[in-house]
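Task 17 of the worksheet. Students: predict the tertiary structure of the chain below and write it out as structure tokens. Keep your answer in the requested format; marks are given for formatting as well as content.
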Amino acid sequence: MMTLYHSPNSRSSAIVTLIEELGADVEVKEVTVRRKDGSGGPDASNPHPEKKVPYLVDGAEGIRERGAIMLYLTDKFPEAGLGPIEGQPGRGEYLSWLFYYQGVMEPVIILKFAQFTHPAVEASLRDFDTMVARLAETLEKQPYLLGETYSAVDLLCSGPFLWLPDMLPDNEAIRDWVKRCSERPATVRTLERERQAA
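Model answer:
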């Protein structure tokens, strides 16, 4: 059985939601992590090399980073239809959004939250407004990032706006998309469990 190392109200919450969406048989083991307020700390039982979450263990395989874990799980459970597998239409767009989130969206959102700007950062990563424009140009044409159907990239990319609602752009298409994603039963259940754990 696979094991996910998870800490409530953290980046790993999206993976807990994905596991439920997939109907996957994955043991979820809660561990502590250092929080931005200074609380918590590394957990000796967490096999992640930096004691962070999420971390997925599947036999001898250890998978870290949300995008990589999502790709691994959606490939492993293709019958759920939450990510095109190799050879299926939309695979390239799926991979592009997974990597766009990890390489652009999350860093840009964190930098904006921290009120940090620098021309070198904006030239290489992009700025917040450029990121918003990229989301908007897609979501003004279709309800989800890959088209008509919800996928793991919607779960991943909408997540920051659920946890940091003040960062939600003033764009109707993006706001409607975040609302649709937030109303998924698995997302509702995860958010409710996380609030109770806080």
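Marker's comment: The beta strands are 2-6, 26-30, 55-58, 61-64. Residues 91-113 form the longest helix (23 residues).
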